[in-house]
Amino acid sequence: MFELDPKLRQDTIPIGGLVLSRLLLMNDATFPWLILVPAEPDIRELHELAQGQQMQLMAEITAISRLMAEIFKPDKINVAALGNVVPQLHVHVIARFRSDAAWPGPVWGKLPAKPYEKAELERMLDAIRSRLAVRIVRDEAV
């Protein structure tokens, strides 16, 4: 049975379910940052997914990257699956700007996380969910 890693559960806000993945918002208002987690038990690496699942994950990464580009108009979209701290397979999709505090370096470890304030979080979730409505295939609690 699939369970979200406790660190991801602690650091993120659930948005919804896609065909393969759970979609999460990193609770850090410094960067627009979404995370896809394939809802498969005990998966640590991309190559552990079946070929069809790998293709589905790439389709979801592409859809979320396009969504981020549409909403935020970033200079660059960073996509990464590191897993050094959280071994469960998860893919970061981060909107980056030449003006952000970590540019051009990675976002990890640059600044402490700045949790969303309630109104800002609601605006962010509304913006994402409204554009995701046509992209979400199953309405499932994360």
Cα separation of the termini: 13 Å
Strand content: 15-25%
State the low-pLDDT regions, or none: 136-142
State the secondary-structure class.
alpha+beta
CATH superfamily: HIT-like
Quickly give the CATH architecture: 2-Layer Sandwich
Average pLDDT level = 92
CATH class categorisation? Alpha Beta
Shape call: globular
The share of residues in helices is: 25-40%
Strand order, biggest sheet?
A: 1-2-3-5-4
User: What is the number of independent domains?
Assistant: 1
CATH topology: HIT family, subunit A
Description of the structure:
- By secondary structure, this protein is α+β, with helices and mostly antiparallel strands.
- It has one domain (6-132): HIT-like (HIT family, subunit A), CATH 3.30.428.
- It is 30% helix and 20% strand.
- It contains 3 helices and 5 strands, in the order αβββαββα.
- The protein has helices at residues 6-11, 51-72, 118-132; strands spanning 12-17, 21-26, 33-38, 76-80, 91-96.
- It has a 5-stranded antiparallel beta sheet.
- The longest helix is centred in the middle third of the chain and has 22 residues, at 51-72.
- The model is unreliable at 136-142 (pLDDT under 50).
Salient structural properties:
5 strands; HIT-like; HIT_Hint; alpha+beta; HIT family, subunit A; disordered C terminus; about 140 residues
